[in-house]
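so my prof wants the structure for this chain in the C-alpha cells format not the other one, which i didnt know existed until like an hour ago. anyway here's the sequence
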Amino acid sequence: MGRWRPKGIPASKYITAEGYKKLNDELQYLWKEKRPAVTQAVQEAAAQGDRSENAEYIYGKKQLREIDRRVRFLSKRLDDMTVVDRLPEDQSKVFFGAWVELENEDGDIETYRLVGPDETDAKRHYISIDAPLARALLKKQIDDEVVVDTPAGERCLFISRIWYERGERR
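here's what i got, hopefully its the right format
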C-alpha cells in the first residue's frame, strides 16, 4: 500500500506571537542541541565496529531521521506563517487570538481561545481557527447566538464575554 493521501483542506497560516516563539524555540533546540548530541552518539556507536548489529547505531540513525524530518517541517512551516501580534481595531467582535466565554443552554460556561492550527491545545482550551466552532464564532459579538454542528447534534451557544489580552482572563 502506498503513502498517497488525498489532499486535505490547507491549514490556516496564522499564528500568535507566543505560538511562533514556541515553535521557533523547538526548532532551535532540535537544530543546535539535540541533533549535535545524537550525531555524536551515532559517531561513537559507529566507531564500535559492525553497524548491522549495533542497536545504538541503528537507533541513533532513526533518531536523526526523525529530528531532520521535524526540522524540515518546522523550517518550512515557520517561513509560511503570518504572525498576528496586533489586537483588532474592533475588540467587541471575535477575531483571531480572542478569548471567548460561551454559555450553553444548560447555563454551563466554556472558555476558548482562537489560535492557529499549530497551537491547538485542549488542556489550555486553545482551538484552531479552522475548527467548526471557531468558524461559527468569527465576527460575532457579545449576546450573539452561535449554532454549531457537532457529531452529537447541533449545539446552541451564547457569547457572554470576549477579550484579547491574556492577563485579563478571570
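also thought this was worth mentioning. The CA atoms of residues 27 and 71 lie 6 Å apart.
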